[in-house]
Amino acid sequence: MKALIFSIVNTLLAFGTYSSLSSSASFGPLTSDSSRFVITVDGKTGYIDNEGIIVIEPMFESGQEFSEGLCAVRKNGFYGFINTRGEFLIKPRFDYATQFVEGAALAFIDGKPVFVDKHGDPLFPSAYKSMTPYRNGKSWVRTHSGKAGIVDKKGHLLIDTVYSRIGDFSDGLAVAYGVDHQTYSTKEKSRKLQATIIDTLGRRIVAYGKYSEIIGPSEGYFRASTSPRFFGNGEEHLLDRTGKKIYVLSDPGKNYYSSFEGDVCDGIIRATMPGQGADNGNNHDVYMTPEGRIIFENVSQRWTRNFSDNRAFIENEDKTYSIINKTGKIISDLRYKDVLLHGFYKGRAFVQTDNGWGVIDTLGQFIVTPKFGRIHEASAGTDHIFFTNMDSVNGNEVYGIADAHGNVILTPKLEQFDERGFVNGLLFAYVEGKSAYIDEKGNTVWEGDLQPVSGLQPLDIDYMKRGYFHASSQSTGHGYEEYGAEPQVITKANSFKEGVFEVVAVPERQHETRTSIRTMTIFVANSTPDTVNFNAQDGRLYMKMQAKDKTGAWRDIEYLPNSWCGNSYHTMWLAPGNYWSFAAPVYHGAFETQLRVELKVVDGKIDHTQFEHKKNENIFYSNEFNASVNPGQFWRKAGYTPMGIMDPYLE
After folding, report:
1. Residue 316 contacts by C-beta under 8 Å, 6 or more apart in sequence?
2. Cα 569 to chain center, whole Å?
3. 34 against 368, higher pLDDT
4. Burial status of residue 306 (CB atoms within 10 A of its CB: 0-12, 13-18, 19 or more)
5. What does the mean pLDDT of the chain come to?
6. What is the pLDDT of residue 608?
7. What's the rounded Cα separation, in Å, for the pair 121 and 93?
8. H/E run at residue 236
9. What is the pairing mode between strands 44-48 and 54-60?
10. What integer pLDDT is reported at residue 483 of this predicted model?
């Protein structure tokens, strides 16, 4: 049964209906200031109170968390805002809407953002492509030509749109890059450095032409590089808030490099430096003051961590960890097998010994004895400990909850949980495939059903789906093409056209999947005498669904994510007389339209021993078919947080 649960969960994740608990689908901060909690019953969104009683009946297609007394919910395809009694104070008319922050909410009509007040009236006419929720009265905006600036609540420009990007302000300063900033010289463009530091009036503290990258601020300091990091013959400068150089790290070139490795924390910064004398061929980490006074050298070349709470963890030669203070002195004889990456936070840190994981204070003494199999990183910012005893459900860890003193309030059973921890007294989690809310005593106050809907239902969403057409072909050694839909031999029973390559959509044919989502079948068939070649991305074909918008133009309602890893891109092929069969969701929304599938195919022969990303492509389309979608599917990407280095996607 549990194997089936996780199969269902994985399929729902692929089709976008099973929420990721660690990422936000909102443009705004994911916060709640109300004792109203989101639930889903039979595919509809409603709200409970902190005792688990339904106070707003599940009647919405989707909904966010309450903020400033209001909540954005979707009804009949469009977003409006309800109060804590479930009454619409702003009628549904938006493609999408975010939470209220500082008295204003971002709403979207035809993909165009506008700020509205609590009456639903625009704060000012907007001609920007994107805007961020307000932070201290400022919204970061971007024009349709890609230029970034900052406006106030009346839409007046505080900082003109003359930058490619502007960072967050801290103590009145932020990093910004000019629109022509070019770190490397290419055939098309020469190197042009426009990294700078600006104040809240937009005045430049650092002149253009000096740095390829600036990072900060941290405790009033900035890290600035004269050339791309790790490429040799450059320098890294530590700047103060006036732009003055406080310290310079020189890069000797060859196979060695010097670089700052973290922010200034507790008045200390980490750096990597080349060795001296007999140790000249080795880099090692040091801790130093901003003026360059070294307080500790980690000659073992092991990992070091940033300072926090005036303490830092260093890795010893035997791969254990010790604690140093700001003078570089090791403060405890105890050594730890492992430590969570964040180090100390509010006077405690999570460490591992031979007996398990526990919690120590800044003197290295245990305040919670080591007894847990593992402690989740989310424990750092909460008043609870989320732990596992390494019990598993088909290899998947399940978590329990302990209080700050290590007293267990819930034995391990949480398959996923909201990594913010308890919000207004309740924790959202999944237990045996069911959504649930748990109070701070470990009691389940509300539990959903395993199946999110009754029977097979179409997919009713308000965002673009990530590409999901994964296929396999004969192995090239890349690895990614070895999973997904497998090639099958075409027979007369398939009824494909002879002598052609085609993409066929069969909306009335449910594809076999372990999910409650209604699906359709998409065929990619090669009846030609030649092998057909494809670009692929981690086994994903360049294939996506499109729909006609209200003007009759074809637009994508699915998208292919970008990968930072060049190894993600490779080629794949389909031999003559073979076909692939894929499952695709049947969409449902407020807008009746037509859909089709687009597939890009490589033009020409491919040497499959070369894992190159080919650019010359032909485009094939499937037959058109009737369907319905929601307005947000034409433009909104819901956001995605990668799970690790083997997941090189970030949107």
Report:
1. 300, 302, 322, 335
2. 20
3. 368
4. buried
5. 86
6. 45
7. 12
8. strand 235-239
9. antiparallel
10. 66
Per DSSP, the residues of 113-157 read EEEE-TTS-BSS----SEEPPPBTTBEEEE-TTS-EEEE-TTS-E
Bridge partners of residue 72, in order along the sequence: 81
pLDDT in tens, 164-198: 999 999 999 999 999 999 988 887 788 899 999 99
Alpha carbon distance 453, 508 (integer Å): 20
pLDDT above 70: percentage of residues in the chain: 85
Report the candidate in 274, 331, 337 with the shortest Cα–Cα distance to residue 307: 331
Dihedral, 319, 322, 324, 329 alpha carbons, nearest 10:
-100
Beta bridge partners of 141: 131, 149
Question: Do residues 19 and 529 lie in contact, with contact meaning Cβ atoms separated by under 8 Å?
Answer: no
Report whether the peptide linkage leading into residue 217 is cis, meaning its omega lies within 30 degrees of zero.
Answer: yes
Report phi then psi at 505, rounded to 5.
-100, 130
Asked if residues 558 and 601 have their Cβ atoms less than 8 Å apart, the reply is no
- Cα–Cα distance between 224 and 379 in angstroms, integer? 33
Report pLDDT digits (tens) over 13-57: 444 443 333 333 333 344 566 789 999 998 899 999 999 999 999
Residue 198, CA distances (Å) to 6, 132, 135, 194 in order: 49, 19, 17, 12
Any idea how long the chain is?
Answer: 651
> What percent of the residues of the chain are helix, what percent strand, and what percent coil, each to the nearest 5?
5, 45, 50
319: left (phi over 0), alpha (psi -120 to 50) or beta: left
Q: Which run of H or of E encompasses 14?
A: helix 2-15
Picking from 453, 650, 589, the residue whose alpha carbon sits closest to that of residue 96 is: 589
pLDDT at 478: 46
Instruction: Give the per-residue pLDDT at 320.
Output: 92
| pLDDT for res 53 | 96
Residue (of 333, 636, 579) closest to 465 by Cα position:
636
Per-residue pLDDT tens for 595-629?
999 999 987 554 444 444 456 789 999 999 999 99
| Cα 524-527-533 angle, rounded to 5 deg | 60
Per the CB < 8 A criterion, the answer to whether 613 and 534 are in contact is: no
Kindly tell me if the per-residue pLDDT of 390 is higher than 80.
no
**Separation CA 591–CA 330 (nearest Å):** 65
Quick one: DSSP state of residue 481? G
**Containing H/E element for 75?**
strand 71-75
Amino acid symbol at 320: T
What average pLDDT does the segment 421-433 reach?
94
Q: Report residue 297 CA to chain centroid gap.
A: 35
Residue 616 CB neighbours (<10 A): 8
What's the mean pLDDT in 415-424?
94
Measuring CA to CA, which residue among 560, 535, 538 is closest to residue 614?
A: 535
